[in-house]
Design a protein that fits this description.
By secondary structure, the chain is mainly α. The chain is built from twelve helices and no strands. It has helices at residues 6-16, 25-28, 37-55, 59-68, 73-76, 81-86, 93-101, 106-121, 125-147, 154-162, 167-177, 183-188.
Amino acid sequence: MTEDLSAVANFLYEAGTLKHTARTGWWMAGVRQPETVAEHSWRTALIATIIAKLEGADPARAAFLAVWHDTGETRTGDVNHLGKKYTAGEADPRDITADQVAGMPGILAEALTELLAEYEAKDSPEAICARDADKLECMIQGIEYKAQGYENAQRWIDNSRGRIVTKAGNAMADAVLKTGSLDWLRLALSEKQG
């Protein structure tokens, strides 16, 4: 390969900032050290594979969309819903992606631009599954924070639950709501359910 990959290398360093970028909405629920965007995106990608498989969509494509869905937040930070109310002329995620991929080899720039456009347009089953995964991950995180004593997380649980649209996403949300955040550990240790 003889193409210059310095723009790709720069993006990889830029993407690393998401490991330190807090999901700011949780501060309103009182969470002192909320999850990062990267942590959120990782579990969102896992959830997207599950929802997509159950929906008959392509799990790999849904995970691909999910893992990239918040990459624009390297440029904007995580602007929560209240902040978006006051952000004049909110940046279009597709424009952010275009800036991020500028200088990359054409095959990469085109693929990533199309990927984020697909996610934003919600025009494929995989994009819909990835978007549901985003909501379900937020709901699960809210349940975990509530179990840690952050009672105000209930708002995020309820709002996220109400935005899930797929049959599989709704069924997963119902199962999550019936399951305690440490039930998996009790099962792994063969402890009795309490």
